[in-house]
Write a structure and sequence with these properties.
245 residues, alpha/beta, TIM Barrel, 5 helices, 9 strands, 21% strand
Length: 245
């Protein structure tokens, strides 16, 4: 019988750039393939690039990258491990991978687009679920049934690329009472560099006005929203289009 495997784009050690865990050491397992083409996607290289890894090899690589933290953190085992993409849930063996990571004692995060069913994910995994705003070009793909699956340890993320996105996201948070479900993240969409632009990405719909980091933060404060502003730390520390960070 063939051993379970996954097509992996990259595995690397960095600091967690987003979520309520921002700033903590984290091993990222980036899987290949995505079913969406969001206008602001900064990892289009993961749509097709990658090679097949067997699950034990992935776990071994994570162990190797985690060596410096052995025995040094008890209350919160470090590094964290995040499974991301692309869209990791497109590959069925993503599920046993995350279960194996949890069994090994790692705090395991899943970054998912919100377009696929999250109910089959190991309940120990911290699921960071996107809700796609209109400027992404993929808002019609939101799987709203996922809201019923959320736990207090999960997180919902809105990537805000325009003033229209902000207004739409604000209404979703308030009308659906999302802050009662789990932490809510409003993430500023950094403009893509020339190297990150990919012809397959959806165009921003007509009429959208870009929003700055400052305006996003100030509007959250003015409206008294129960959300966490975030920007991508790794793009502040390293070049915004650098891979493997």
């Amino acid at each position: 019988m063939a051993m379970a495997s996954l097509v992996v784009n990259e595995i690397f050690l960095s600091v967690q750039g987003e979520s309520t865990f921002a700033g903590l050491p984290c091993v990222f397992i980036r899987l290949t393939a995505c079913n969406l083409r969001c206008s602001y996607c900064d990892t289009a290289y993961a749509f097709t690039e990658g090679r097949r890894w067997e699950l034990p090899a992935i776990i071994q690589r994570v162990r190797e990258l985690a060596v410096p933290w052995q025995g040094r953190s008890r209350s919160l085992p470090l590094p964290l491990v995040e499974v991301t993409g692309g869209e990791p849930l497109l590959q069925p063996n993503c599920l046993p991978l995350m279960t194996s990571l949890c069994d090994a004692g790692w705090v395991t995060l899943l970054e998912t687009s919100g377009s696929l069913d999250i109910s089959t994910v190991d309940p120990r995994v911290r699921r960071i679920v996107d809700i796609k705003c209109p400027a992404s070009g993929e808002a019609a793909r939101n799987r709203w049934d996922n809201l019923a699956c959320l736990k207090a340890t999960d997180e919902l993320k809105f990537v805000i690329a325009s003033r229209q996105d902000y207004e739409w996201a604000r209404e979703q948070v308030l009308q659906r009472r999302l802050a009662e479900l789990c932490p809510i993240l409003f993430s500023w969409a950094a403009p893509l560099t020339e190297a990150q632009q990919d012809a397959s990405l959806k165009p921003v719909p007509a009429g959208h006005e870009p929003i700055s980091r400052q305006e996003l933060a100030e509007r959250i404060l003015a409206d008294g929203l129960p959300v966490r502003f975030q920007t991508q730390l790794h793009k502040i520390i390293w070049a915004p289009d650098q891979r493997g960070v």
